[in-house]
Design a protein that fits this description.
The protein is of the alpha/beta class. The chain has 14 helices and twelve strands. A hairpin with a 2-residue loop joins strand 11 and strand 12. The structure holds pyridoxal-5'-phosphate. The site of pyridoxal-5'-phosphate (PLP) has 12 residues, from helix 3.
């Protein structure tokens, strides 16, 4: 089976397992795990922020990141297919007491004229006000699309003019970085708080981080504990993350090349595939997914007529080529 359902399906490599096995550990709830601290410092530095906080999942990192910017009774604006709106199962409302409104963009991007219409300024205590704008880069359900730095900088200026914050869901920010050459610190500079994942394209088994100011991270550490996300000798997992940052970032370019191969096989213009995700319209997604599985290729149905395929560390060039042959035949 060639598994293209998600880049979360990767298994730790032997070298990653060796790094995990030899990690120095301590109790991270006491702030005493040296490997977690090293990872947090490394990631904060990469994005040019003061501090970072390790979380078990990207969903928890997003919840803590948005909660750092929006208090109960305020709202966050995001794109309609954003992970925070579509796939975090209401956590932001349930846990943080905030509301969300969305805009739609065909490639998961931004249109400041639309945002201008949507933005709710502070009209006093009896109205919901927009406290933050959230963007996703790359955008998962839009097909791994990249938000350009110029758009993000324009968003930063837009938010600053209105006293709002910016959250960046960077679960796959590494893919955007490799696809465009944009420094991670430039992405860091446009956001008040970021959430980034080690367990997608980077191939770690577990782990995400939120990144922001030292004060925001101190508060988020308390909220993380409240959610049951205070972990103990978790340096074994942080070690996987440090290994991934060292060895698995530059190679994402291979995943992007493989995704373009798959796109071409499906009749999707490869020029529209920015990174490692291909979203493809078919007559009936469930039937298509089943036919592909019968031929040895696993895909996901992400809508009644939409399938998604994701390339990753465990799909080498030969596997991508075999999958392309199967998909072209279908
Ligand atoms: C864009 C985006 N943000 C956040 C997440 C959440 O990550 P996790 O599955 O670790 O909770 C995902 C998961 O796929 C994602 O694609």
């Amino acid at each position: 089976m060639i598994d293209l359902r998600s880049d979360t399906l990767t298994r730790p490599t032997d070298a990653m397992r060796a790094a995990m096995a030899s990690a120095e550990v301590g109790d991270d709830v006491y702030g005493e795990d040296p490997t977690v601290r090293a990872l947090e410092e490394r990631v904060a530095e990469l994005f040019g922020h003061e501090a970072a906080l390790f979380t078990p999942t990207g969903s928890m990192a997003n919840v803590l990141a948005v909660a750092a910017l929006v208090v109960p009774g305020q709202e966050v604006l995001c794109e309609a297919r954003a992970h925070i709106a579509r796939a975090e199962l209401g956590a932001h409302g349930a846990v943080s007491g905030l509301t969300m409104r969305t805009w739609s963009h065909p490639r998961g991007g931004l249109d400041l004229a639309v945002l201008e219409e949507l933005f709710a300024p502070d009209l006093g205590p009896f109205f919901v006000r927009t406290a933050a704008i959230s963007v996703e880069n790359t955008h998962n359900f839009a097909g791994g699309t990249v938000l350009g730095l110029a758009d993000l900088q324009a968003l930063r200026a837009f938010a600053d003019d209105r006293g709002a914050a910016v959250h960046l869901d960077g679960a796959r920010i590494w893919n955007a970085h490799v696809a465009t050459g944009t420094p991670l610190a430039s992405y860091g500079a446009v956001a008040d708080v970021l959430a980034v994942c080690l367990s997608k394209g980077l191939g770690a088994p577990v782990g995400s981080l939120l990144v922001g100011s030292a004060e925001q991270m101190d508060e988020a550490r308390v909220r993380r504990k409240r959610l049951g996300g205070g972990m103990r000798q978790v340096g074994v997992l942080a070690a996987a993350g440090l290994h991934a940052l060292e060895h698995h970032v530059a190679r994402l370019a291979e995943d992007h090349e493989h995704a373009r191969l798959l796109a071409e096989a499906c009749g999707v213009d490869p020029a529209t595939v920015d990174t490692n995700i291909v979203v493809h319209d078919v007559d009936d997604a469930v039937t298509f997914v089943k036919a592909a599985a019968d031929a040895g290729v696993l895909l996901s149905a992400v809508g009644p007529r939409t399938v998604r395929m994701v390339t990753h560390l465990d799909v080498d060039r030969a596997a991508a080529q075999r999958a392309a042959t199967v998909l072209a035949a279908l």
